[in-house]
Design brief:
33% helix, alpha/beta, 8-stranded parallel β-barrel, TIM Barrel, single chain, flavoprotein
Length: 400
């Protein structure tokens, strides 16, 4: 009986501590991936449902990354998105951090701006902004009624002026200061998933001819300015132990979009900054690189190529489709990432890390239960409704 409850060998590396280059140590290498929960109050302050959702999924983890949190009024891309926009947001942020830390995990606040993916009804009038002209595209998770209302408000993103770009750089730094004040252990800069920082780096969305666009070096100027501003804010606070990570998406589909060479060039600049980790955003942990078949001397997986290029200069966090214990174990044993983040699997199994540590990974289920509903599974009602609309992104059994 006792041996059945012992952790299985394939998971043991996940439960080794990891010490960052600033001396901060995580108790283990399992991370709760940042997940949109649609659950903050209308003003962006923390709600009870949000705190319950995050806290209920923090047990047994080394680190928890919060949902994308807006740093500026023009950046809100989700109903129920949390804010780190002004000092009044700090008390709610503090409660989120404490709900994570109560379980022994490090709490990291993800800093976000939606750019042209912000929603018109959530930002000031005409407030959806972008590096270059862009026709707004409604996301799949909102209702037809909201899509129509947003289309009536704004259909073209407003191009950012130079002064506004600099204001947004300062907004990221200010949000990091709020995170410090709220007691978070770190922040993650969201430069992935087609949001503002990625929009600036991609030639598909940045067609500027000033210092913020054009060549690869000028396109990366904004994300690097944000990263420097955030790390400078941490240095001013005298918090050498504070974690700063950067999340990126490695490749884009359009021919002129971000390619692996662009990502590797960005990585080479990011590692020069006082960051603690990089986080590659993937739909599937093992998804192949765009040109995987063209060069057999390189590993086919995007994450493997990135890890090889990093060569130990910073820890890499991997994510993507890690729902079952077998998926998580395979990712850990791949050697492609020092940190393993779990998202959808944690929505389904809030205590997945506790079960794995106890050798009880076979008890992990592969779907939510419609019969139990949202509250019993510690899921905010707004998120539950999104999950129902987006079946089978997170599978729900007994769903009719």
């Amino acid at each position: 009986m006792f041996e059945r409850l012992m952790m299985k060998p394939q998971f043991q590396t996940l439960f080794q501590p990891l010490t960052f280059n600033n001396g901060t140590t995580l108790p283990n290498r399992l991370v709760l991936a940042p997940m949109t929960h649609w659950a903050s109050n209308e003003d962006g302050s923390a709600s009870e449902a949000e705190i319950d959702f995050v806290g209920s999924r923090s047990a047994g983890l080394g680190m928890v990354i919060s949902a994308a949190t807006a740093v500026h009024p023009t950046g809100r891309a989700f109903d129920g998105e949390p804010n780190a926009v002004c000092a009044t947001d700090v008390p709610g942020l503090r409660r989120v951090a404490q709900s994570i830390q109560a379980h022994g995990a490090k709490a990291v606040l993800q800093l976000h701006h939606g750019g042209f993916r912000a929603l018109p009804h959530l930002v000031p009038a005409g407030g959806v902004v972008a590096p270059s002209p862009f026709t707004l595209i409604a996301p799949p998770f909102i209702s037809e009624q909201v899509k129509a209302a947003d289309a009536a408000l704004q259909t073209e993103a407003r191009v950012l002026a130079d002064a506004e770009i600099r204001e947004l750089v300062d907004a990221f730094a200010q949000a990091a200061e709020y995170a410090l004040e709220a007691g978070f252990d770190g922040v993650e800069i969201h430069g992935a998933n087609g949001y503002l920082l990625q929009q600036f780096y991609s030639a598909a969305s940045n067609r500027r001819t000033d210092e913020w666009g054009g060549s690869r070096e000028r396109r990366m100027a904004f994300p690097l300015a944000v990263a420097r501003a955030v790390t400078d804010a941490v240095a001013r606070a005298g918090r050498a132990d504070f974690i700063v990570g950067y999340r990126f998406s490695p490749e884009e589909a359009p021919a002129e979009g971000i390619k692996m060479a662009d990502t590797l060039a960005l990585i080479d600049e990011l590692v020069k900054l006082p960051l603690q980790y990089l986080h590659v955003s993937l739909g599937d942990f093992n998804e192949p690189a765009e040109n995987a078949a063209e060069d057999s001397s390189l590993p086919p997986q995007r994450i493997a190529r990135i890890h090889q290029h990093l060569a130990g200069r910073l820890p890499l966090m991997g994510v993507g489709g890690l729902v079952s214990g077998a998926h998580i174990a395979a990712a850990a044993q791949s050697g492609y990432a020092e940190l393993i983040a779990v998202g959808r699997g944690a929505i389904i199994n809030p205590d997945f890390a506790v079960k794995i540590a106890a050798g009880n990974d076979e008890a992990l289920t592969d779907s939510l239960d419609a019969a139990l509903g949202a509250q019993q599974q510690h899921i905010p009602e707004a998120l539950w409704q999104v999950l129902l609309r987006m079946q089978p992104w997170v599978p729900i059994r007994n769903f009719k």
